[in-house]
Write a structure and sequence with these properties.
Layout lengths: L1 E7 L14 E6 L3 E6 L1 H7 L5 E6 L2 E3 L5 E3 L11 H5 L2 H6 L8 E6 L10 E6 L15 H10 L15 E6 L9 E3 H13 L4 E4 L8 H12 L3 E5 L24 E6 L15 E6 L3 E4 L12 E5 L1 H19 L3 H11 L6 H4 L19
Parallel strand pairs: 7-9, 7-11, 8-9, 11-12, 12-13, 13-14
Antiparallel strand pairs: 1-3, 1-4, 2-3, 5-10, 6-16, 15-16
Helix pairs in contact: 4-7, 5-6, 7-8
């Protein structure tokens, strides 16, 4: 038997599988099923008109490349430069710090940390293993810090420190390369939807796509959840025209962010192209990180560079907008775009740098 992911047209169609010898069947968001089946059964199901797609669940190596500066000794700092560029202090001075908002981070897990406050977590790859210990990679801890760092003991503070953070581990924990499966990403998205999150961060990218994964992301988006993605870090430094953005940032319903430096210029390896929505700081960002053994509670911090950190900065200000205006996802993103600082060609920067709102966005009434 092999593991497959099946997307059905409707929830009631899932009952089709009752006549097959299945193992480890899991239903996500009503219409997506992960299941162990024989190959001959798949051949029978492929022609069923009630099934949208069938795919073999495969291991996937996600791009979470980042540049680290772990040797430099940093003095404690309350903020990173995106905090200043977006004028986050104005939000905070108004008491808008993400309170009442919920955010999920799909990544490599989040270790317990003296400067983080995690509401809940899950290991969507292997439920028998923890999501917050014995990690193989510190990436998820660092990404979470952009949003949730508490500013404890004079350390850095995140964009939305009072938002509830949900950690979703989607990697196998076997090494530095983030190896995952489509099924674990789907299970992670489904768990986040069940928790009622307002936004999801996906600071990873891959060259290939899955119809089932796209369906899961689409369902979450249709429920009003804003999904923020890193554009990627694979742009050749000598190529400023080729579209190199990857999945899931390429989905039309996700919000992709590029990496800009403190002077608001594009970081040379930040991916460009159609579908880019915003730009944000992701260069030498001071972040909470794991300890060397990935157990217990860490207090370490490190500086990192990549679109992985641009994305949660954009997500963070989205949460502040949402707390301030209490509007739909679409209206909030429109407000962000209207108030973004235009930085140049949208092929490089999207709408630009999101900032504290100074222009009021009002719906235009169209006469019929």
């Amino acid at each position: 038997m092999n593991r497959y992911i099946i997307v059905f047209e409707n929830e009631e169609d899932v009952h089709i599988l009752e006549s097959y010898k299945t193992k480890d069947l899991e239903i996500h968001m009503g219409v997506i099923v992960t299941v162990l089946l024989e190959a001959e059964d798949i051949k029978t199901l492929e022609n069923n008109p009630k099934i949208e797609s069938i795919e073999a669940d495969t291991n996937e190596h996600l791009d979470i490349e980042e540049e680290l500066d772990s040797d430099t000794r940093y003095e404690s700092s309350k903020t990173n430069y995106p905090f200043e560029l977006m004028n986050i202090s104005q939000f905070h001075s108004e008491g808008i710090t993400g309170q009442g908002m919920k955010v999920a981070v799909l990544d490599t897990g989040v270790q317990k940390h003296t400067n983080l406050k995690v509401k809940d977590g899950v290991n969507a790859y292997n439920s028998s293993q923890p999501w917050d210990e014995n990690l193989a990679n510190a990436h998820g801890t660092r990404v979470s810090g952009v949003i949730n760092a508490q500013g404890n003991n004079g350390e850095v503070i995140g964009i939305a420190p009072d938002a509830e953070l949900y950690a979703v581990r989607i990697d196998n924990g076997n090494g530095a390369i983030n190896t995952t499966t489509w099924s674990s990403q789907i299970a992670g998205i489904a768990w986040a939807v069940e928790k009622g999150v307002d936004a999801i961060n996906c600071s990873f990218s891959s060259r290939i796509d899955s119809k089932a994964r796209k369906k899961a992301f689409q369902i979450a988006s249709d429920k009003g959840i804003a999904i923020f993605c890193s554009a990627g870090n694979t742009q050749p430094r000598t190529d400023t025209t080729t579209n190199t953005a990857r999945y899931p940032a390429k989905y039309p319903f996700t919000i992709a962010s590029a990496n800009i430096q403190a002077d608001k210029t594009r970081y040379p390896t930040s991916c460009i192209g159609q579908g880019l929505n915003f730009s944000n700081g992701g260069t030498m960002i001071y972040l909470p990180t794991t300890n060397t053994k990935y157990i217990g509670t860490s207090s370490r911090h490190v500086a990192g560079t990549g679109t992985s950190f641009a994305s949660p900065h954009t997500l963070g200000i989205y949460l502040l907008y949402k707390q301030k205006y209490r509007e739909s996802k679409e209206k909030i993103l429109q407000r962000m775009a209207v108030n973004a600082e235009h930085l140049g060609d949208t092929w490089w920067y999207g709408a630009g740098l999101p900032k504290y709102p100074t222009q009021n966005y009002i719906n235009v009434k169209i006469r019929g």
